[in-house]
């Protein structure tokens, strides 16, 4: 099951994002086939302001657990996180 994890940073969260980025990237890279693709969301100035991660998981509960264990989430970076089933059509 593919899940689109979309997370928006809290206002003023860039310093926290940068301070925890290495741990976050290591978490994603260590997840094996669970992470189909990932990258930061950018604001109009091109500054990171959130995350988009496509997860390949057995069910929504696995996506919720993955999201909760993300170092960014544990650090309190996110203002909101949504998990939506996603259907790959192109790419």
TrEMBL record:
It comes from the Bacteria. Residues 1-87 form the YCII-related domain. It holds the Pfam family YCII. PANTHER family: PROTEIN YCII. Belongs to the YciI family. This is YCII-related domain-containing protein. It comes from Pseudaestuariivita atlantica.
């Amino acid at each position: 099951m593919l899940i689109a994890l979309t997370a928006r940073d809290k206002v003023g969260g860039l310093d926290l994002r940068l301070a925890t980025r290495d741990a976050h990237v290591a978490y994603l890279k260590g997840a094996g086939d669970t992470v189909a693709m990932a990258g930061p969301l950018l604001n109009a100035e091109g500054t990171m302001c959130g995350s988009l991660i496509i997860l390949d998981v057995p069910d929504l509960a696995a996506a919720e657990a993955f999201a909760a264990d993300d170092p960014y989430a544990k650090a309190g970076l996110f203002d909101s996180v949504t998990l939506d089933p996603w259907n790959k059509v192109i790419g």
